[in-house]
Amino acid sequence: MSSKMKFSYYPGCSSQGSAKHLDESLRAIAPKIGIELEELDDWNCCGASVGHIGGGSLPNTALTGRNLAKAQQQGKQDVVTGCAACYLNTHAGNEKIKSDVKLRRQVNDALSAADLSYDDDLQVRHMCEVIVNDVGMDKIREQVTNPLTGLKVAGYVGCQTVRPFSSTDGGGNYDTYEDPDFLNDFTEACGAEAVDFNLKTSCCGGSVAVMSPDRTLHLIRDILQAAEDAEADVITTPCPLCQTNVEMYQDAINKKFGTKFNIPVIFYSQLMAVAFGMDPDKDAALKRNTIRARKLEKLAKK
Amino acid sequence: MTAALPETAENRYDLGFARWVRDNVEGGDKLSLCMQCGACSGSCPIGTQMDHGPRKIIAMIRAGMKDEVLSSNTLWNCTSCYRCTVRCPRGIPVTSIIQDLAAKAVEFGYADKKENALFAKSFWWSTSAFGRTDERLVTARYYFSLGFLEGIRRGLANLKIALGMVRTGRMHLGMPHKIKDIKGLTAILARAAEIEAEEANDEL
After folding, report:
1. What's the CATH architecture for A5-126?
2. By the 8 A CB rule, do A162 and A239 touch?
3. Which residue among B101, B146, B181, B182 sits deepest, i.e. has the most Cβ atoms within 10 Å of its Cβ?
4. Residue A15 DSSP class
5. Predicted confidence (pLDDT) per residue in B116-135, tens digit
């Protein structure tokens, strides 16, 4: 891999809100690992977990159709996103539109209302899959100028980054559903220690945790407890909703269960930015975490 | 819109509802493959809080229990973790079935006042009005759709979280982010809804 790989980059709505630090750190590390991110022009929401309930099935799929039509105008390069929900919806929608003739016709009928069409054979990929399959750990290690020696990291993968596509051909066959290794590989490539963390693919409650936290706080408590038992300094995750849920509900969990959790939850891309010796604020966006990762901040190059 | 629901069967083992699910629900055509092993229910992170786990919901669909299925809280506790889907030995897309049944429950008036349906409506309001999810407005609109007092209560309960998000610059302040071609998106969504409605009429 000599020249830069170019992608149409779909940041997703959380990149302008709760997961700004994922977007900022991804954009910062991309050039270092040979990736050019060209933002998808005028992208829209993917529909997340509830779009089909609020808007109906076809309108929800049309959201993906519009993004794909915009990507098609932008070129043949693969579409990449860092967000688990954007990936799930856009990847699944793309595969369905490509394989289901009737759906493709209906989506294109809807798109024609804005003079758009999608008849290409684009690939929609997750940033982690691209890092595993196209970039490779050697390239990550090459960029590490500030190894995170002594930092203990619990790799929390969550759900939709791996399920249901990580072991499919379309999903790049990049890891397993139950016990994926990629996040620990990222951690160790950065010179940190990946602790043994047995809830790596347990669910944080997803959007149910946003709408009715009382129903799912115990799930997050279990994840935090496992990280604490493994003596992790930080939890790292690829998923915007996991990051926010596991971070922001720690007070509520402490109140409900009498625990004393105060564990930072950071994105793998923030870890990489620090390990690459980049700016802790501008590139790693460490100030965006409501529970500051003090130990990681101390390791960062000033 | 979807083809009209069948009448509730007098005989519980009428297959009318199962056939309707097969023809109208995403993944429904795979229901007949279920061997009731329970890997789905055993894998579900909050199956214990469901009226009926996914295995039982599938059995109930096949038994024609339309009202019980569509009014069950199972549809609203699914977190879309896809563990059931990847573990099902028969390859049944359990998550898709449950998620699409949730949409049908709203469409046919079984769940209008359920928290999650209100959340979905707040979400879609932002998506269709701006082309993007404004997390702040979706949350506020959802809280207040639960009633004025409940809106205030939830707002206060989450005040510290909100302030943390503002402090770290993760809650957008000011006008919502809006896509440039909102007119085009509105036209696409309207046409898609129209196609879906025509489809339902075809099947009646």
Report:
1. Up-down Bundle (1.20)
2. no
3. B101
4. G
5. 889 999 999 999 999 999 99
* A146-290 maps to CATH 3.40.50.11810: yes
**Shortest alpha-carbon distance between residue A1 and chain B (Å):** 33
Q: Are B129 and A80 in contact (CB under 8 A)?
A: no
pLDDT tens for residues A179-198? Answer: 999 999 999 999 999 999 99
Q: Measured between CA atoms, how close is B131 to chain A, in angstroms? A: 5
- The values of phi and psi at residue B171, to 5°, are -110, 120
Domain count, chain B: 2
Residues B136 and B182 in one domain: yes
φ/ψ (deg, to 5) at A125: -125, 155
Q: Does A49 touch chain B if contact means CB atoms closer than 8 Å?
A: yes
Q: What is the ipTM of this complex?
A: 0.94
User: Which residues, 6+ apart, have CB-to-CB distance to A192 below 8 Å?
Assistant: A147, A148, A149, A150, A151, A152, A153, A271, A275
- What is the helix (H) or strand (E) element at residue B42, kind and residue range? helix B39-43
Strand A79-81, strand A124-126: pairing: parallel
B181 reaches A (C-beta below 8 A): yes
Helix (H, G, I), strand (E, B) or coil at B121: helix
Query: Which of B58, B85, B107 corresponds to the end of one domain?
Result: B107
